[in-house]
Specification:
Chain lengths: ~400, ~400
C-alpha cells in the first residue's frame, strides 16, 4: 500500500520516471524500450523522451540489436555497471578504509589509512582529502563518493552523536568537511543503513522489500528497508537498535540510556566477557576487540566448551536484539553481519532458539534470519551502495539533464 | 530523500498524480488549477486532464469564481469534506464502537454495541453486519468503512495475533468477514497506526512528516510516520512497541516475550499496581481497568500523594517507552494518547524527566512530546482516518475512473 501520507514527499514525476528507468536497467540488465515501458507502466512516448535525454547525458547507451522476447531482435538499452566507479569510505574508531567500486558493487581497489588516534584525526582527514583527490584524478570513471559512519549519525546535521567508539570524531562535521571538497558529490550515511543498502543492491539472493541489516560488531546498528523505503527518522537517527534498552535496570551506556543492547553483544562487550574467563585466551588483555573475538571464534570452532558457552551467551543477547527487530520493524529477512556474524552457525542456532521461544509464531514463520554473504566489513560495500543508490535515484546530480 | 529503493513500489504515475491532487484539495481547501499545478509541479495540461476525470466521477467539483492570488478571480476546485461520509469501527476486548464521520474527521454519530464476551463474539459480528448495513442504507454519502483493531494485527493475513486483550477475537478473520460484506469498501488497520493517521489528518497543529502516535491504554501500541511513510512491516505488524522488551529478565507476556512494555504501563498493569496499594481505591477490585485508572487520576488531581507517586512510577515506564521510540524511530513529535494520557501534565512532566536523563540531547532537543488533542478513544477517529486516507490515495476504489 502506498499511503496518502507518502505522496507529500514525492519527487516530481519526470524525476521519478527517470529514476525508475535507471533502476530498471540496473536491476534487469539490457532491456528494450518496449520492455521498460511494459514493466514500468509508462507510455512508449514517455520512455522515448526520457531515454533520449539519458543517452544524450551519457548515463545509459544503446547496445545495438539484442535478442528480445519472442525472438524478435530489437535495440537494447544498457546501464553499463563497469563504466561508472564510486569511491567508498568507511570510518570506524581507529580505522579508515577506502575502496573504489564499480556500479555492480565489485571492489576494484581497497586501502587503509594509517591507524587513527584521538590526536591524529585532523591529519587523517587531510590525508583522506589527498587520497580521494588522487583517486579521482587517476580514474575519470569515478562519479561519486559514499561514506559510512557509525551511528547515531545525525544525517541532517552531518555529525555523529555521543558514542564512545567515535568520541574523537564527534567534532568532525562530515557534510562541511567533505560535501564540496571534490569534483564529484559526496553522500554520508550511518553504517548499518549503508549495509542494508549493500545487501539490497549487491546480494542477488535478497529479493525482499522488507529487509533488516543487523550490524553486530564494534558497535551494534541496524538499517531497515520497509516496503522499499529506508527508515531514516527525522534527523537520520532512526533504527539505532544498539541504544535500545533490553534492561532498564542494566548497564549504563555513553548515550545516557541504560541496558543498551550494544553493551551486551558488541565486540568490546565480548572482549570484556573474555577477560573475565580466566585463561580462556591467554593474551586477550593485549589484543584488540577484533583479535580477541576472532580468537574466541577459532577456539569454539576447535570444540572448546567454554568458548562455545560464551558465544551462546552472546548469541542470547543477539537473539533478544532480533526480537526487538521483529516487534519494531517486522521485516521478512534479518541479515546479521559484521564481526560477530563470523561466529557462524553456532551463533545463528542459538539466536533461533531465543527467537523460537519469544516471538509470536506468525512472525517467526515468515521471517528468515541469515548471516551476511558480503565480507565482514560490509559497511565499506555499504558506502559504495550509498553512492550508487544516489546515482540511480537522482541522475541530475551527476549529469547535465534538462 | 527518496531512495532508489522506494520507487519499486510506486503506483503508476497517473494514479499518483490523481492522488496528489486529491490530497492537495483535502489539505489546502479550494484551489485553482494553476495553484495546484504550481504546488505539485505538474503541467497545466496534466491538471486539466486529471481534474476533468475527477469532476466527471464526482470526487471533486468546481466552485465557480473564488478570489485567487493577486486578486484575480478564477474558477476554484474543491473536495467537499461534508459531502462524503465514512463509517468507523473500533474493536477492543469487550467494546465495539461505531461512528459516522465526515471527511474532515468530524463525528456525526457514535454508538456502542452491547458489551461483548468471549461467548457473544459471533452474535456481535452479526449485529455489526446489520448495524453497518443499516447505516449505509440510511446515508448515501457513506463511501467507505475503516476498522481499527488492537495490534499485533497481521494486516496481510487479516487476523490479530496472540494477545490477551483480543483472545476471543483471534479466530475472526477481519478481511474474510467484512471485506466483501457491504456495498462500500472496508479497510482494517492496527489501532495505534490508525491513531497516527488520525493525528496526522485531523489535528491541524501537527505539521511534521515524522510523527509517532504512542497509544497507552488497555494495550500499548505505536504508529509511526517516517518522512511521510507509514511504517508497516512485512505483515503489517511493525511498531508493536507494547511487545518490545524493556527488561529481558522481566515479566512474561502472552506474546511469548519477557519484559514487554505493555506489562508495565497498560491499564491492566496499572490496575494491578493499584490493587497492591492497600485502600488506595477502596472498590478497585470490582472496577474495570478503565474505571480504576480514572479513579487513580482523579485522586492524583485531588493531591493524593500515593496516587501521585503511583502515576510517577507508571510515567517512568511510559518514558522508557519513549526512549525506545527515540532510538528506534527518531520522530520529530511523539503524541501520547489513549486512557493513560488522561493522567495529564503530571505524567508528561515525569516522562520528560526520564527522557532528559536517558536520551542523547540532539534527539531530545528536536523532538516534541505532547498529549493527544483528540478524544481518548482516538482509535475510533483513527478508523475514520484509515478510510479517508484510502479515499484520498486510491480514488478508483470509490469511483469509476478511467
Ligand atoms: Zn546506548
Ligand atoms: Zn508481549
Amino acid at each position: 500500500m502506498t499511503n496518502t501520507i507518502a505522496n507529500a514527499t514525492l519527487a516530481s514525476v519526470s524525476e521519478t520516471n527517470r529514476s525508475r528507468i535507471m533502476q530498471h536497467l540496473y536491476q534487469h540488465g539490457i532491456s528494450s524500450r518496449a520492455q521498460i515501458a511494459k514493466a514500468l507502466d509508462l507510455t512508449p512516448a514517455a520512455i522515448t523522451k526520457i531515454t533520449a535525454k539519458l543517452i544524450e547525458a551519457g548515463a545509459i547507451k544503446e547496445t545495438g540489436d539484442f535478442e528480445g522476447r519472442k525472438n524478435r531482435r530489437s535495440i537494447g538499452l544498457t546501464l553499463d555497471t563497469a563504466e561508472f566507479h564510486v569511491i567508498a569510505v568507511k570510518f570506524a574508531r581507529s580505522l579508515v578504509q577506502l575502496g573504489v567500486f564499480d556500479l555492480a558493487g565489485k571492489p576494484l581497489t581497497v586501502q587503509e589509512l594509517p591507524q587513527v588516534t584521538e590526536d591524529t584525526i585532523d591529519s587523517a582527514i587531510m590525508q583522506l582529502h589527498d587520497t580521494i583527490g588522487s583517486l579521482i584524478e587517476a580514474d575519470r570513471r569515478i562519479i561519486a563518493i559514499g561514506m559510512a559512519v557509525p551511528g547515531p549519525y545525525l544525517r541532517s546535521v552531518g555529525r555523529t552523536a555521543v558514542v564512545s567508539s567515535m568520541r574523537g570524531w564527534q567534532k568532525v562535521n562530515f557534510i562541511h568537511e567533505f560535501s564540496n571538497a571534490f569534483t564529484v558529490p559526496v553522500f554520508v550515511e550511518q553504517d548499518a543503513r549503508a549495509g542494508a543498502m549493500a545487501q539490497y543492491l549487491f546480494d542477488p539472493t535478497i529479493t525482499t522489500e522488507n529487509l533488516a541489516y543487523y550490524l553486530v560488531g564494534e558497535g551494534v546498528g541496524l538499517g531497515v528497508i520497509d516496503h522499499g523505503n529506508i527508515i531514516n527518522g527525522a534527523l537520520g537517527a532512526a533504527t539505532e537498535i544498539g541504544h535500545v534498552s533490553i534492561d532498564i535496570n542494566g548497564k549504563p551506556c555513553d548515550c545516557g540510556n541504560v541496558g543498551c543492547l550494544e553493551r551486551y553483544c558488541s565486540t568490546p562487550a565480548i572482549h570484556e566477557m573474555i577477560l573475565k574467563e580466566d585463561d580462556l585466551i591467554a593474551d586477550a588483555g593485549t589484543m584488540t576487540h577484533l583479535q580477541a573475538c576472532r580468537a574466541l571464534f577459532a577456539l569454539a570452532r576447535g570444540g572448546d566448551k567454554r568458548a562455545i558457552a560464551l558465544i551462546k551467551r552472546v548469541a542470547r543477547y543477539v537473539g533478544f536484539g532480533c526480537i526487538t527487530i521483529f516487534n519494531s520493524f517486522n521485516p521478512s529477512q534479518i541479515v546479521i553481519g559484521d564481526i560477530v556474524a563470523e561466529a557462524g552457525q553456532l551463533l545463528l542456532d542459538e539466536v533461533h532458539k531465543v527467537i523460537d521461544k519469544h516471538v509470536i509464531h506468525e512472525l517467526n514463520d515468515t521471517t528468515a534470519i541469515t548471516l551476511s554473504a558480503l565480507p565482514a566489513d560490509a559497511a565499506l560495500n555499504g558506502a559504495a551502495a550509498v553512492a550508487i543508490n544516489q546515482f540511480l535515484d537522482h541522475p541530475p546530480q551527476f549529469f547535465e539533464l534538462s
